[in-house]
UniProtKB/TrEMBL annotation:
The lineage of its organism: Eukaryota, Metazoa, Chordata, Craniata, Vertebrata. Its main location: membrane. Pfam families: Sua5_yciO_yrdC. Belongs to the SUA5 family. The keyword Cytoplasm applies. This is Threonylcarbamoyl-AMP synthase. It catalyses: L-threonine + hydrogencarbonate + ATP = L-threonylcarbamoyladenylate + diphosphate + H2O. Residues 55-241 form the YrdC-like domain. InterPro entries: DHBP_synth_RibB-like_a/b_dom (IPR017945), Sua5-like_dom (IPR006070), TC-AMP_synthase_SUA5 (IPR050156). Interacts with RSC1A1. One of its GO terms (biological process) is regulation of translational fidelity.
Amino acid sequence: MKSVCNIAVELIKYRRAHSSTASRWLREEMCKELKTKVLRLPPPTAHQEGHTDGAEVLSCTVKALKEGHVVALPTDTIYGLACLAQDSEAIRKIYDIKGRNGQKPLAICVGESQDIYKYCKVKVKEELLGDLLPGPVTLVFERSEVLNTDLNPFTSLVGVRIPDHAFMRRLCQMCGEPLALTSANISSHISTVEVHEFQDLWPRVALVVDGGPIGDQSRLGSTVVDLSVLGKYRIIRPGCALSSTVDVLEHKYGLLFLEE
């Protein structure tokens, strides 16, 4: 078996002839060494040589999650780390991988707006959910009794996402339960929009889904808004969709800003 040092030496030779693909080659070779799978998600419009079929990526990701692993994957805002929200041991793995403060909550991710009602006590109109989701917004509600008590046990609230990302929504649907979701980085470090930016985490996850560079490259993450109080809203994190979110909440549904 090749050592990582030998791989690095081979990279130097390889780069001279193939500099445009050298970094990707090194990442894939190192993942072989570290037993981490990297699967490239095909574009939504066409199958390209070198990309794994989308159905195969979904199948492999579902399998890894069902086996209790943490995976890295693309969303509509930044790359994330995910596990099954109902799997307490997997949740502990995410905190350990990120070096995350145990008092910082994880959001959940579901595939359809109807799923929100199972895990959250919703106090807004269904139409409001449809106006904001799928999209780069995390909505915070009071959690229901169905949700794993080991997920954010220090709060009665939970944030929920439906990313505007077909792979993520289909993944949640195939899992049949919510994912716990957080950014793919060491806690307090910059958010990531390409897989090579969190390469230091690869050895600690079972699977990396490479969806290419994330669209707007803003690194701001989703806008997080608390809707747990009837008729009011509170911005927890401005994120990348603040203006459009506030416009919907205030002008279309008449919600009032909740003072601290």
